[in-house]
Amino acid sequence: MSNEHLLIVEDEPGIAHILRDYLVREGYQVSLQDRGDQVVSLVKKENFSLILLDIMIPYVDGKTICKEIRKFSDIPIIMITARVEEIDRIIGFELGADDYICKPFSPREVVARVTAVLRRTFKNPVDHLLSGGGIQINKTSRIVMVQGNEVGLTPNEFEILSVLMGRPNRVFTRAQLIEIVQGYSFDGYERTIDFHIKNLRKKIAVHLPGEQIIQSAYGFGYKIVF
Fold first, then answer.
1. Do 217 and 158 contact (CB within 8 A), yes or no?
2. How many helices (H) and strands (E) does the chain have?
3. What is the C-alpha separation between 203 and 221, in angstroms, rounded?
4. What is the CATH number of domain 129-224?
5. At 88, is the pLDDT very low, low, confident or very high (cuts 50, 70, 90)?
């Protein structure tokens, strides 16, 4: 039996109950919430391992909820939406979402996504310490320090930085980063790496102003240079 406690934020009872049943069948503990205005206080009170968050939730929308949660927690968030436009995917990742699922979807796909996100978030690393260029990563405690200052990263941002830090000067393609970080890939997903990199650069630049540690290989991918 899994110890992970998941929160499903979804106002359509049919969808919420189907997802809960599939996830419970896999051994997860699951709570449901159908009001956006109660989510942030609930997350602060309960020790959830992951949130499945519908964007079009009543009272407070999912994007606002995601933004508020990212102010105090790096809990994995998978956003769910009926909108398939690229702009929604972009906004979701810029706010710190870890994955993105469009309706209609297969419940089995959601279970696979949840399992993949939790696996990469809580996996046991082999090389638990990485450092260079003023950045230090402890992969056991999942703490990132930049010039002695702790920097909060989402699980995806943490994994991307860890991959780049583990092989300085090596260029990783977007497809390689997706495969390493997500554990799977699908059409249209590679460009989301750009937004994770953008967020990483912003967070690092707060403590390393004027330095471009993460560099682009135009039309190819990214590398880290110390």
1. no
2. 8, 12
3. 20
4. 1.10.10.10
5. low
